[in-house]
Design goal:
Structural class: alpha/beta
CATH class of the largest domain: Alpha Beta
Number of helices: 9
Order of helices and strands: EHEHEEEHEHHEHEEHEHEEH
CATH superfamily of the largest domain: HAD superfamily/HAD-like
Shape: globular
Strand content: 15-25%
Radius of gyration: 18 Å
Low-confidence stretches: none
Helix content: 25-40%
CATH architecture of the largest domain: 3-Layer(aba) Sandwich
Largest sheet: 8 strands, mixed
Distance between the termini: 12 Å
Number of strands: 12
Mean pLDDT: 93
Length: 254
Amino acid sequence: MKVLFTDLDGTLLDASYRPAGEALRALLDAGVMVVWCSSKTFDEQRHLAETLGVPGLFVTENGGGVGVPPGFPRCDLHAPPIEIGGWGIDYREVRRRLTEAAEETGVRIRPYGDMTPDEVAEVTGLTREEAERARNRRWSETFLVGRKPGVLVGALDRRGLRVQRGSRFWTTHGRHDKGTGVRWFLRRLRDRQPITFAVGDAPNDLPMLAEVDHPILLPALDGRPVEADLPGLVRLDEPGHAGFSRAARIVLER
């Protein structure tokens, strides 16, 4: 069997959050198991899967948890997914350490948890309902940061938290990453001897790419280069939808 792990924003989803649905459908119709790996929450990914009518198989919040149907992998993949976690740090503790680090360094932050859904919608361009799903976090916190972010990163590291930087927002969480979630899936699929692929476009995708047989890296939508030195890495020239569609063809033809 073939398994494709894919990032969402900037890969399967374009800048307007529209999915590369035709390429995704071609993969599923060919029997490829597609697992989403994102910083997005379980609620966000579950809603997207329901909207597209595809199986709910996710790595959530940069590896803080996973979403799978009960009994995975010996189950109906279209059954409603449940959330499984436990290797991340609980959201309340992440918030406590983030607040403590900001106070220690004097760096101003504005976390999702301190905003109303309407405020999150305003700064992200999401709808209010999408903002509510984005705020429902289990293992991480997303925030805006003022000056001297490097000082804050150091203070968070001393408290056992990693930091991921996006184009506008930062996210902090425990010592897990997308590779943590990929390994969870691969342990459960070992008996099926899967041929594994992964596609992403950002530094936080590298732990995911490092776990598979065939890693594929797209250029970032914002043009920032991603340094990577992985065995067998394929670099594509097209970002977003076009890149994901080409990656899908590689998976199908391999």
